[in-house]
Amino acid sequence: MKRIISILMENEFGALSRVVGLFSQRGYNIDTLTVAPTDDETLSRLTLTTQGDTQMAEQIVKQLHKLIDTIKVVDLTEGAHIERELMLVKVKASENDSRTELKSCVEIFRGHIIDVTPSTYTVQLAGDTEKLDAFVEAVSHMGIMEVVRSGVSGISRGDKFVCA
Amino acid sequence: MEHLSGGDILIRALKDVGVKHVWGYPGGAALHIYDAIYRQEDVVHLLVRHEQAAVHAADGFSRATGEVGTALVTSGPGATNAITGIATAYMDSIPLVIISGQVPSSKIGQDAFQETDMVGVSRPIVKHSFLVTRAEDIAATIAKAYYIAATGRPGPVVVDIPKDVTEPNYKVPYDFPHEVKMRSYQPSEKGHRGQIKRAVKALLQAKRPVIYTGGGIVIDNAAEHLIAVARKLNFPVTNTLMGLGGYPGTDRQFIGMLGMHGTFEANTAMHHADVIFAVGARFDDRVTNELEKFCPMATIIHVDIDPTSVSKNVEADIPIVGTCTSVLKEVLSLIEQSDISPDTDAISDWWKQIDEWRAKHGLYTASRYEESSGETIKPQDVIKMLYKITDGKAIITSDVGQHQMFAAQYYLFDHPRQWINSGGLGTMGFGLPSAMGAKLAFPDTDVACVTGEGSIQMCIQELSACTQHNLPVKIINLNNSALGMVRQWQDMQYNSRYSQSVYEESLPDFVALAEAYGHVGMKITKFNELEDKMRECFAMKDRTVFMDICIDRSEHVYPMHMPGGSMRDLWLSKTERT
């Protein structure tokens, strides 16, 4: 089962490499990974997705928590949460027909066309992983030139929050 | 406020954190630090002959005393040579701080001379690491490093310091923080009270209990609390290889070591147990044998300071995260308050059963091997003789292999920190330098390194450091002219094809070698010489003595777990099995 793990850690030298190293060292996979400082610049937020059963997820969370630089580790999949991923897709669009079809597809998926050339459209789309996958599938016959995905970000629903 | 250079700040901070001894080896990137050492007398530096030994010696010192050990190395090869020592300490949760010189900040990443990314290379085998980028940060970093190394589940911490940061002409105010607070690191101490209550209930209702304890008891200085709980309940106690000495080896309730080369009675009792009280042990694969067949009937109570150790290999029914001391104290007080009384009839039947197992196949009740005689010296008898001559009071360090198992089985350790060995990583070469560390800590105690002719050659250069620092350790070399444990496995699983495990014709004359370093060498080939020679060896209090003892070459270590079996599936000798 897919797990979204949110980690708050000290924005220190080498902190990211400790997380990534832990995964390879213990034989876990990272499917996606996003990292950026938070509103407090001394803190970094890492969100990563991985696959695992309950026992494995529990072990991963404990191992992450054991790293000295980590402040909070939460498996978001354990509760109600929102996940979002940003995707930029460059699609072939030289014919009028395909430009029209792509435009309507982008509207249906509530995306934006953010760059246009005579032969391509570049689409920006945000949503959960399934939605992004569905869009890629929907436009794949038109000729996808490049897909850039940010990896999953997540936040818990309601009053709960993960902070230092 | 006093202004000091980075090098001076480092040494002053070591002093302020309580360090008296540093084991190390100088080199280019560490020379400012070495110059600072030269200019003071509070922190004593002990020069080794190889950086691996510096870390092992600091490790031996730490295991013998419970204090944080300190090693100092230079960049590049100095740092990489230290790696095996760091990994050894990491696997056994030993608190160390390893300070490494690094190339100047401006050269980092340039493939400079003797440059290695020490923080990167050591990352998977440290509890934490620091790269210090400013002289102003040294004191605070050192305070943090020792705090992290010593607290929670202890472990090695690396502090990598670029050469420019210790530059003598750049002076900054010295400000040592006397308290360390980290928002991201707050190790838990006390176990969950509700869980401890559940555990106590399970313990009091047990009919076939076993207390299984590991290195955590030794590290946390929890032996007295373990003894109190075990005596109160009259339960059998078994120790892991790392936990030996945590419960007195000569006590009636002690049923020996468990695991791959553990006793028949300990392994069999574990298999049949209905409640296992695991304290400061981690269900290592050398203990459990095949996990699917592990202790099928047992309710497992697992106490450990490290949450990741709990339910990692074996699912715990009652997990408790906390220090051994705090949990055992609470267990004892709850037992005393409880209105459940233990089932003394069941416990007494259980003891009857265990005593039967003991009488049948126990290591200590009847000889499990043929007698020594003439030129046949059995390694087990050497350990028994060592026990007799040192009155069971020596600190024993060991290397890795058959000799390590014989020492663990036959030297009955009554006190924690008496048995020092590389349990987790299994590092050959650990014995001699760790003995040096222990001897430095306890100059008036006999320190013996039980080793083999294979292991001793992995750090034999330290005989020179023993001379330099006057560390009169005794080396008990069980010489069977082969890599004994490798050969044993080749006998058992490879139809005695001795691939690269024999080298008799190329072995050195150990007596001459010891003498070349200024020590006493002895060669023993006859069993009837052993006692007198060993007495002579230990009578020479101020000399390092190398006893090269030619033992029976065919001896195997038994009992031994059968691969893929449960804990009770054991080879008891070359021909008997359970």
TrEMBL record, chain A:
Report if keyword Amino-acid biosynthesis is assigned.
Answer: yes
Q: Which CDD domains match?
A: ACT_AHAS (cd04878)
Q: In which pathway does it act?
A: Amino-acid biosynthesis; L-valine biosynthesis; L-valine from pyruvate: step 1/4; Amino-acid biosynthesis; L-isoleucine biosynthesis; L-isoleucine from 2-oxobutanoate: step 1/4
Q: Which GO terms describe its biological process?
A: isoleucine biosynthetic process; L-valine biosynthetic process
As its record notes, the protein acts as a catalyst of: 2 pyruvate + H(+) = (2S)-2-acetolactate + CO2
Q: Its Gene Ontology molecular function terms?
A: acetolactate synthase activity; acetolactate synthase regulator activity
Which of UniProt's keywords are assigned here?
Amino-acid biosynthesis, Branched-chain amino acid biosynthesis, Transferase
Q: Which domain of life is it from?
A: Bacteria
The answer to keyword Signal applying to this record is no
Annotated ranges, domain ACT: 4-78
Return the broad EC class: transferase
Q: Which Pfam families match?
A: ACT_AHAS_ss, ALS_ss_C
Q: Name one GO cellular component term.
A: cytosol
- Which E.C. number(s) belong to this protein? 2.2.1.6
Describe the function of this protein. Catalyzes the conversion of 2 pyruvate molecules into acetolactate in the first common step of the biosynthetic pathway of the branched-amino acids such as leucine, isoleucine, and valine.
What the entry lists under NCBIfam families is as follows:
acolac_sm, PRK11895.1
The record's similarity note reads: Belongs to the acetolactate synthase small subunit family.
Oligomer status and interactors: Dimer of large and small chains.
What name does UniProt use for this protein?
Answer: Acetolactate synthase small subunit
Identify the taxonomic lineage of the organism of origin.
Bacteria, Pseudomonadati, Pseudomonadota, Gammaproteobacteria, Cellvibrionales
Automatic annotation (TrEMBL), chain B:
The protein's organism comes out as SAR92 clade bacterium
The keyword Transferase belongs to this UniProt entry's keyword annotation = yes
Q: What is catalyzed by this enzyme? A: 2 pyruvate + H(+) = (2S)-2-acetolactate + CO2
Q: Which residues form the Thiamine pyrophosphate enzyme central domain?
A: 196-330
Q: What is the lineage of its organism?
A: Bacteria, Pseudomonadati, Pseudomonadota, Gammaproteobacteria, Cellvibrionales
What are the GO BP annotations of this UniProt entry? isoleucine biosynthetic process; L-valine biosynthetic process
* Entry keywords, A to Z: Amino-acid biosynthesis, Branched-chain amino acid biosynthesis, FAD, Flavoprotein, Magnesium, Metal-binding, Thiamine pyrophosphate, Transferase
Top enzyme class of this protein?
Answer: transferase
Write down a Pfam family by its short name. TPP_enzyme_M
Please report the name of this protein according to its UniProt entry: Acetolactate synthase
Similarity comment: Belongs to the TPP enzyme family.
**One annotated GO molecular function:** flavin adenine dinucleotide binding
Please report the stretch or stretches of sequence annotated as the Thiamine pyrophosphate enzyme N-terminal TPP-binding domain: 5-118
GO cellular component terms listed in the entry, alphabetical order: acetolactate synthase complex
Query: Which segment of the chain is annotated as a signal peptide?
Result: none
**EC number(s) for this protein?**
2.2.1.6
What cofactor(s) does the depicted protein rely on? thiamine diphosphate; Mg(2+)
The Thiamine pyrophosphate enzyme TPP-binding domain, residue ranges: 399-549
This protein's source sits in the domain of life called Bacteria
**Co-factor binding details:** Binds 1 thiamine pyrophosphate per subunit.
- State the InterPro entries in the record: Acetolactate_synth_lsu, AHAS_TPP, DHS-like_NAD/FAD-binding_dom, THDP-binding, Thiamin_PyroP_enz_cen_dom, Thiamin_PyroP_enz_TPP-bd_dom, TPP_enz, TPP_enzyme_TPP-bd
Which pathway features in its UniProt record? Amino-acid biosynthesis; L-valine biosynthesis; L-valine from pyruvate: step 1/4; Amino-acid biosynthesis; L-isoleucine biosynthesis; L-isoleucine from 2-oxobutanoate: step 1/4
Keyword Zinc included in the entry's annotation = no
